[in-house]
Amino acid sequence: MNIIKQATYNNDQVKIQSREYLFRGFIQVEKVNLCHRLFNQSKFTPVMQRELIHRPEAAGVLIYDDTQQKFALIEQFRVGAMDDPESPWQLEVIAGVLDGDESPESCIRRESMEESGCEIDQLQHLFSFYPSAGACSELFHLYSAQAHLPEHGGVFGMPDEGENIQLHIIDYSEITTLLSNGRLRNAPVIMALQWLQQHIKTTRNV
To answer: Are residues 69 and 35 both part of a single domain?
Structure first.
């Protein structure tokens, strides 16, 4: 077993006893009774109850330009951060939910136009990950893309969907501050800027 390449067990070591939807809306909440295999044993856990939040897959992109030495982030109100002691207006990468059988790449190109007005050509896949696998099924696909950025930001979004999004164009010189001052409060933007920081170091050393 090489834990670097694969997990100790796969999903055939999970026994589902029952599943029941408690709520169905934009998100769904399901009550699941299950047990799973124990490490270093052939036994399973006792049956346990878990609440599982179902959200569609999502995709996001960090748009940057090495020539301009700038990158784009968006700012918008987030109900999940409504009780945040600093602010519910969060800095984020451009992102959205996949529509039906839409690919992550198609989703990103659509969201980029809606949230920034930027057309994207080449996309680089960075990570696909579960932001909160302890309770939520959402899978997030994170990309980067180099594209020419507008000189100034602006207000974007789809008003009929309740979106009010501020685009910010930020200098590379601000990355270290953003990663250390607590302003960033969500995983995709932190991961994306850590990647960009490494990208800048790599290109400067070439």
So the answer is: no
Between residues 28 and 158, the one the model is more confident about: 28
Distance CA 58, CA 39 (A): 32
Which domain covers residue 28, as residue numbers?
A: 11-54
Q: Are 73 and 89 in contact, with CB atoms under 8 Å apart? A: no
Do 94 and 111 contact (CB within 8 A), yes or no?
Answer: yes
Q: Strands 124-129 and 70-77, how do they pair? A: unpaired
Which of 125, 134, 114 minimizes the C-alpha distance to 195?
A: 125
Does one domain contain both 65 and 147? yes
Radius of gyration, alpha carbons of the chain: 20
Average pLDDT over the chain, rounded to an integer:
95
Task: Report yes or no: 168 and 115 within 8 Å, Cβ to Cβ.
Answer: no
Q: Do residues 200 and 64 lie in contact, with contact meaning Cβ atoms separated by under 8 Å?
A: no
* pTM of the shown model: 0.93
Residue 81 has pLDDT above 80, yes or no: yes
